[in-house]
Write a structure and sequence with these properties.
alpha/beta, 3-stranded mixed β-sheet, binds D-mannonic acid
Amino acid sequence: MSKKPRPQLFTRNKNVKPIDILHFGPGAFFRAFCCVYFQKMKIIKPASINIMAVSLVTPDTVKKLSRQGGAFTAVEKSPDGLAIEILDVIQEAVFAPSEHEKILKTLSSNYLKFVTLTITEKGYYYLTNSGKLNLDHPDIIHDLKNIDRPISAIGYIVSGLKLRKEKGLFPFTCLSCDNLPNNGSILKDTIIQFSGELDKELSNWISDFGKFPSSMIDRIVPKVLQSDIDAISGIFDYSDQSPVFHEPYSLWVIEDDFVDRQSFPLEEVGIKLVPNVEKFEIMKLRCLNGTHSALAYLGYLSGYKTIFDTVSEPVFQKYLFRTWKMEIIPSIDPPSGFDLIKYTDELFKRYSNSAIVHSTHQIAMDGSQKLPQRILGTVQENLQDNRSVALLCEAIAAWIRFTGGADESGREIDVLDPLASEFVECHRKSKDVMDLVDRYLSLNQVFSDFLKRNAVFKSHLENAILRQRERGTLESLKKVLKLE
Ligand code: CS2
């Protein structure tokens, strides 16, 4: 343990300072990743890191953080032990439905420099197939009608920018920290489309003066369980109801494109600023998130609860290394200075961290939002360039089976996904495996026109589903990997 905690932070009376960063989505990832960097910045520039953390969906984290004056413990876990740090950069945590006026006031304040977001893929309301904002989504319909009382992050940002324009202020920088390729451009496009529906002049102003740098974020942060909180309570000499747990590794790469960059010592705290982040994002999304999702579906169906358990099985180790070598690495043009073999060897070490309990079920959620950028883009390029796709198709087949809602012993799976009811329909109505694959391929949100029409892709999926059903997932993989 590297640090002795200082319990007075949890009860301190804060001198309220103007908010300079407003964050949407104060879940574990934000707190175990962004806040660790912000804490380091605060040491360099004590006056300038005061965060308002806004939860749009649930009040739980806000309640817990508020009771602790915004402070919480970040616990780094490695097989060698724990390292503990208390982070106190959150000045105020608010639950949006009960504090919308306060949020809009902060968004339109002269002091605010940054709006950061970890709202997960579905929080952007964009259609993966077309890149367009989903104007039919009930939240977007609501916000377009009630821009002074929004419910989505997109609605809040546009409402805040509108107020700033009226006051004659500059926009703030909007920094997306979600696992999407070109997350800054996606955010910008959705904001421009949304504001264009309201007022063309506003959307032109945002387009001219707004800044939406893309970023690549990387740290494994599992969901916090009550059992984790209980397990560590014995080692603190204070009570923390809202700790977060993370691995030692961390990398944050941001495009150097800000409204006001001087305010924050970004590079001094280890953030990499680059002219274009795309190569970093593609490398990370395909090598890390792609195999995370593959291991999540294949591992879950084979009875493994965590990534560590899954990669401890030699068949999955073979699957992982062969998938990287044959199907993922050949599709990537890495950022300069990155060796993809070393990079994936390091990923394997990170997955093998026995102290990190990262559940396959957690990673499996929201697959309809994740697969396009994690796996399907790689498969499409491989098909176009005549490379192998068999191993990644095993993972897509496992996703189709997983989202059917029952595991190999017939136990129910809790499928968490915006398309969950569509998946149930696909399985319920399908006559046979060919029909099932056709029904999945017709999900416009997930599959590109190229993949829908590709016969090789379709037959790989059908064969993989049939084989996995007949032999079980693990035995099926052995066959594909020629291990039997
Ligand atoms: C994971 C990611 O939950 C998931 O879908 O793949 O959260 C992953 O742990 C991070 O992107 C690692 O940087």
